[in-house]
Amino acid sequence: MSQGAVVIKKIKQAQKELLAWYEKAGRHELPWRNTQDIYRIYLSEIMLQQTQVSRVRDEYYPRFLEKFPTLQSLANASLDDVLAAWSGLGYYSRARNLHKTAYLAQKSLPTDYKELLSLPGIGQYTASAVCSFGYNQSIPVVDTNIARVLKRYFALLHVKDKTVWEYAQKLLNHKDPKNHNLALMDLGSLICLPKNPKCEECPLQQECQGKTEAELYTQTKKKEYESLELFYGICIQNEKIALTPATGNMYKGMLELPAVDPIEEDFLGSFKHSYTKYRLHVKLYHLDSFEKAIWVSTDALHVTPISSLTKKALSTALNKKTM
Ligand code: SF4
C-alpha cells in the first residue's frame, strides 16, 4: 500500500472512531444541538464564546430566548432591552453585534459562509459553526478545544492558526461533517483536557502522535493584565438610583454609576472586579446629588442595561449580596 493510501486509511479509521465515540459519549442533550432553528444555534455560539456551557445552558440561553424567541423579535427590540437581557454575560460588544446582525439579516441568517462572515461579530469560527451545526455543510470548525485535539493528534508544535484549520480540513468527514465537528469539540472538552488528558479513554489514542507529551501542545502565552482604579458615586433619592450613560467603548449603550473625585469622608466601600484584560479596583463614595442623573428605581434594575460591575457596585453600596 502506498504512503498516501496508508494516510487515507488512518484518517478514515479516525473518523469512524470519532463518530462511534460521539454517538455514545457526546453531549447530545445540549439544547442548541436539539434544534434546527439557525437563530438558536447562532445565539448559542455567540454566548458560548466567553461563557461556560453550564451557565449558558441553564441561565442565559433560556432567559434570552424567552425574551427574544426569533431573529425577527431580536431585530425589532431596542438595544437597551438587548443589553439588559445580556446583563451578566459580559463582553457587551457581543450583544451589540447580535442586535446589529439580527437587524441586517431580519428573518433568517444567510446560508453562505462568506455572507455570514460579512455580518457584525461573525468571524471564521462562528461562520463555520453556523454552516456546520446549522446547515450541515461540509466545512471544518476549529475552536480552542478542537485546536488542542488536532495539535496533539497531528503533533503540531508552534504552528499558526491557519495550519490548524488546514489539518481540520484534512480530518473532516465529508459524509457527516456536523457530527464529526461536534465529536471533536466534545472530545476536547471531555477527554483531551488541557492538563492530564484522559488518553486511555480517547478514541484517537492509537494514532495520536502527541499523546506522550500532550501538555507540550497546550502551552499558551501568559495573559497580561492591566490594573485600573475607578471611583463611583452612589446617589439614592426616593428609592431611585442616579445613573448616567456609560462612557468609552467597554460598556457602550449601557448605564453606569457617575464617576466622582474621591473624598475620603464620603467613602462607602470598595471591591475588586475583573473584566477582559482589566483588573479593576473600584471605590464607592456617597454622593448628595447628581444633576444629569437618569433616575432608575431599584425595582427596575433587572430590566436596565447595566453591567455586572455596576450591579456589584450597587450591591456593595446597599450592603446586599445579590441584586
Ligand atoms: S490520545 Fe490523548 S492527547 Fe491524543 S487526542 Fe486523545 S486525549 Fe488527546
TrEMBL record:
Enzyme nomenclature, EC number: 3.2.2.31
A Pfam family reported for this protein in Swiss-Prot or TrEMBL: EndIII_4Fe-2S
Function: Adenine glycosylase active on G-A mispairs. MutY also corrects error-prone DNA synthesis past GO lesions which are due to the oxidatively damaged form of guanine: 7,8-dihydro-8-oxoguanine (8-oxo-dGTP).
PANTHER family: ADENINE DNA GLYCOSYLASE
Gene from which the chain derives: mutY
InterPro entries noted in UniProt: A/G_AdeGlyc_MutY, DNA_glycosylase, Endonuclease3_FeS-loop_motif, Endouclease-III_FeS-bd_BS, HhH-GPD_domain, HhH_base_excis_C, HhH_motif, MIG/MutY
Name of this chain's protein: Adenine DNA glycosylase
Keyword Iron part of the UniProt annotation: yes
GO BP: base-excision repair; mismatch repair
The reaction(s) this protein catalyses: Hydrolyzes free adenine bases from 7,8-dihydro-8-oxoguanine:adenine mismatched double-stranded DNA, leaving an apurinic site
Keyword list, A-Z: 4Fe-4S, DNA damage, DNA repair, Glycosidase, Hydrolase, Iron, Iron-sulfur, Metal-binding
